[in-house]
Amino acid sequence: MYIYFIGSAIQPYEPFINANLGNENRTITKITRICSSDLTSQLESRMDLAIECGFGDDSKRVEASFYDPVHDQVIIVSGSSYRNWTICSYSMSEIEERFDRDWNMCQQATFHDGALNCEAATNAADLDDHCHIFTRKTDAFRMQTCSRFGQDAKRVYENCNLHQFAENSYRYGWLEDFRAVTGNVIGSVAANFEKIVSVLPDFENEAIFLGGYSGLSMLLLRVAWQTERLSSASHVFWKRRTFPTSRFPMCLNGNGKTLFILNSTKITTNRISCSGLYSTCDDLANGGWQDPLSCIWCPDEQRRAVTSSYDKFGCLHPITKACPPVVDHANRNENHSEWEVFGSNLDRMEDVEVYVCEQKCRVNRALSSSTKLLCVLADGTVQDAACNVRVVGRLEGYDGFTLEVKKTTHSVALMTDLSQHTKSPRTWKEVVAILAVVLILAVLGVIICLARKKMRKTKDGVSVAVSSSNFGEDAAIRHYFNKYDQCLADFVSPYEQMFRDIDERLKIDISSLHIEEEIGRGHFGIVSRATYNAPDGTTKKVACKILKQSIASVSDFITEGLTMDRFNHPNLMQLIGIAFTDGKIPIIVTDYMENGDLRTYLRDDSKVITLRSLLRFACQIAEGMKHLHMCRSVHCDLAARNCMLDANLCIKIGDFGLCRRVSDESEAYEPSNKHRDVPFPWMAPETMISETFTFQNDVWAYGVVLWELTTRGLTPYAGKKGIEIMEFLRSNKRLQMPEYCPAQLYYQIMLPCWHADPQSRPSFADLVVLLNDLVDSMESNQSQQLCSNYEKVHVVGVIEEHKPLRAPFTMPKQNTWKNGHQIRDQRCG
């Protein structure tokens, strides 16, 4: 029985030195074997055998390895400083044969054989096999060619029985063979790893799993097993990121059918199958179409899921090349007969048709794009804004592929446009009759309200409670509910109609919520922890935001909740649903964030926070904002207080009260709610003046968030009023670099975010790249600083003048650009 090790070292190439043919150092990858029964004091049974992949190995170092006894294969990943990773396979039987042959060869050689035959060679071709095997256990001061252990001509010792030789001389053990065993190249990866720590072969499906450190996270890949000579990097089928945990982030079960992934303190299981590895069609689009598992996407309405081509029973229209488009929402324009459908990859379908309330809406292809379809109803017909909208077309040979569009609440008209009705088939008499009925009902409502108010005045100490029993016990919540005029509960308001128009999947029955203690307050309402009993029988902790202001805020409040439903990203707060009390009070239900908001977390002296953690937070915020901007939306209120932390300390950007989709023409948004508090310390100078929000304003705010991170929660421009902040910024002054902040983070990332010219600021796609470059640099040169406790800054200068700020922002030259966008894999965790 033997124990094996695999490693690499930079060392002299002894065969050439011994023969005076050169004195060069090489990076040698080797496999080491030691007898498990070795009883010698210096493990003299050790043998080293060089291995290679057949090309360019001189600068490569071994990174990870795996041995599979069933397939008799050793899989080794090696790499260089250029991050080109090579995957090779070796026959373990062949390696064993070489070890045994080397030992037996040396037991037939003498010291004089080495001196005569090896040292006298005049070129490398004259060196026979024995001249490449050296012993490190010599009586001299340097390695020498191997010879018989013990020099006893009457006995040859087995490699595992060297302890039986009792003398101290001639113990020529620890052999090293410099002739490399050549393996087969089965893969090559030019990916974003700083270090690969794990490799797992999937022999059955001819794929390879790799795991390693990438930026602030652990990157896991599934790549193609290549059987021919490599001409390009292996195709990446599957990719996943996890929190950095141990050096062994994943493993396979005994039969190789299940992949176990270690993520923080949890272990997740993934069946090595199409449905086990790929959750959505987008996962397939990112490489999974070429997976040997032969995965397909079934778009049928009754079975929309990833499955295998070998198990496609029941799928009438399998998709094998491209994913269907995604529709986000639909808006009715001001003339009420023109509609816009927003989404992504809308150009993937051919012969597209749009139906509004089952009426065909003619698509204007000249004004449509991959993100928007513009259509007009025939003959200027008017349809209600709450209509169901369908997009129908041909997708990869599937005629009649249909997408249901979410109902929009952004374009619901609360007032009737008389000018539109004058163009409708209705006569003016009908219009007058309708208005008369509406007027009578309104008068009756006012009379009833006044009468009820007068009756309540005769009752002392009577307060109105919310009908739901869950809320009746909470005095703090009831205090806010009682501020509403009870007349609002006596008839159906436009806002209740708005709730009725919300997508059914988002509606939550108020009886399924049990409200607990208050945990925070936002612009619109108070936030309480609650228990949600979901329809599927599960129970989970949730956060409930409950409106606290006047009824005039209901529309914006509900809009804030529905805005969350537009985005699907791990670093953006997700909407669970919206509830409505019997008192017509809306409640937004989201995931419960166990670690609260980021600013409070940073300020907590009891928290041990490393620089690596701070950079991870920064990277996650940048990733979330990158997705938000890709969806053509601006946040308008990005700050540490609006970034939440879940149980795994993962950032979720929240508070979408000001978040809006920007205009396609101006790429800007002008808020209609002028009464909301303005976050001056996080606003760009041009926004302070124009009150118009752009993508560049979010980037400016992100720079301030980085400053909050690196001061552990200090208030920016503390003690300064809005006008004072504006004057400071206009005089080309900026927040000063915090005491413990890395200079590269401040000068190459923060300051560009605060450039005086908005167009010279980086995008969030740029920022993700810059942050990863920063981490790469620190991993190589300042790894200890990344892991050290980041101390709280108690005193910091507020502002600092920076004259170079007027120079335009540029990305490093080595990056590649195409059509104005940088091409580079993102590595944020």
Question: Could you give the topology of this structure?
Answer:
Layout: E1 2-12, H1 14-18, E2 25-35, E3 47-52, E4 61-68, E5 73-79, E6 85-91, H2 92-107, H3 111-117, E7 133-135, E8 144-145, E9 175-182, E10 184-189, E11 195-202, E12 207-214, E13 217-224, E14 236-242, E15 250-252, E16 258-263, E17 266-271, H4 274-277, H5 281-285, E18 295-298, E19 305-308, E20 326-332, E21 338-344, E22 350-356, E23 359-363, E24 372-377, E25 389-395, E26 398-405, H6 418-421, H7 428-457, H8 469-472, H9 475-481, H10 494-500, E27 507-508, E28 513-521, E29 525-533, E30 539-547, H11 554-565, E31 575-580, E32 586-591, H12 598-603, H13 611-630, E33 633-634, E34 643-645, E35 651-653, E36 660-661, E37 668-669, H14 685-690, E38 693-694, H15 695-710, H16 722-730, E39 733-735, H17 743-753, H18 764-781, H19 783-787, E40 799-801, E41 816-818, E42 821-823
Parallel strand pairs: 3-9, 27-31
Antiparallel strand pairs: 1-2, 2-3, 4-5, 5-6, 6-10, 7-8, 7-9, 11-12, 12-13, 13-14, 15-16, 16-17, 18-19, 20-21, 21-24, 22-23, 22-25, 23-24, 25-26, 28-29, 29-30, 30-32, 31-32, 33-36, 34-35, 37-38, 39-40, 41-42
Helix pairs in contact: 13-15, 13-18, 15-17, 17-18
